[in-house]
Amino acid sequence: MSGVAFGVDIGGSGIKGAPVNLRSGELTEERFRIETPQPATPDAVARTVAEVIAHFKPKAKVPIGVTFPGVVQKGVIRTAANLDPSLIGVDLQGEIRRHARRDTRVMNDADAAGYAEYQYGAAEGKDGVVLMVTLGTGIGTALIADGRLVPNTELGHLIIDGKDAEEYAAESARERHNLDWAQWAAHVNRYLQEMERLLWPDLIIIGGGVSKEYEHFVPLLNLRAPVVPAALRNEAGIVGAAAQAAEAARIAAQHAAHTG
Ligand code: BGC
Predict the structure, then answer these.
(1) Around Cβ 98, how many Cβ atoms within 10 Å?
(2) 114 lines ligand 1 (CB under 6 A)
(3) 45 is in which domain, residue-wise?
């Protein structure tokens, strides 16, 4: 990939964005962050995304990708497990267009992070089945097979022992239940073993803030596939959003050239 695209990452506490160099996957400027508005109504969220974009004034041709922590289909929010439920059913892409006067591509946050790892990080150019699992407030997943992402896998909500996996193995569960690293690693292991039983990934990437502390728990995991920490850390959402938006723009242009 080449050129520049722009990424925005909507999270529970902050909305942040930056331009991304598509060749290297690096931010070309320091990211800009605004607190997520409370309540996070569709209008307030879209307005904040527009403010983040306006801070950088990207040129009209620069593709813009936006991540959201829930299921997103054609720009419409379908779930919002850890964000305001008033967003469900909303055409967030349309709302952002209204505020920013720009077209964007809104996508799931873990999908963006997984895509970034495939393009530039821990799974760069890797064939086979790559499973990315982000451990944070919730659990996000991205499934990439031979470089193609299956969007909106919600495997963080797999039911394990009658419980939503997210409540049992997310980073927030470690804090909420006061688990030490070994206890929490056992939960993560149980969860990932279930994923292996069903999906047989060739590589598992662990993302989310806790991935920078991987030496406390990754060596305790007992899984078939190699498990590696994410390479992109904090910026994976921004980078993946930008890269996916650029790829979508490239495909749309190709399509227009063929049909036009
Ligand atoms: C949501 C996913 C999201 C993950 C990480 C989960 O609760 O259902 O869509 O990717 O949290 O933010």
Answers:
(1) 13
(2) no
(3) 4-111
Shared-domain flag, residues 139 and 107 = no
Distance 97 CA to ligand 1 centre (A): 24
Give yes or no for residue 110 CB within 6 A of ligand 1: yes
CA nearest ligand 1 atom 2, residue: 70
Distance (angstroms) between ligand 1 centre and the Cα of 133 equals 10
- CATH of residue 83: 3.30.420.40
Q: How far is CA 104 from the centre of its chain?
A: 16
Ligand 1: residue whose CA is nearest its atom 1: 70
CB of 245 closer than 6 angstroms to any ligand 1 atom = no
Positive or negative: CA dihedral 155, 156, 157, 158: positive
One domain for residues 22 and 78: yes
For 82, residues 6+ apart whose C-beta sits below 8 A from its C-beta are 12, 69, 137, 138
71 and 15 assigned to the same domain: yes
pTM: 0.97
User: Does residue 255 lie within any of the structural domains?
Assistant: no
DSSP state of 37: P
Ligand 1, residue 109: give the atom nearest the CA. 10
* Ligand 1 centroid from CA 127, angstroms: 25
Whether the Cβ atoms of residue 3 and residue 98 lie closer than 8 Å to each other = no
141 ligand 1 Cβ < 6 A: no
pLDDT tens track, the chain, 260 positions: 889 999 999 999 999 999 999 999 999 999 999 999 999 999 999 999 999 999 999 999 999 999 999 999 999 999 999 999 999 999 999 999 999 999 999 999 999 999 999 999 999 989 999 999 999 999 999 999 999 999 999 999 999 989 999 999 999 999 999 999 999 999 999 999 999 999 999 999 999 989 999 999 999 999 999 999 999 988 999 999 999 999 999 999 898 898 86
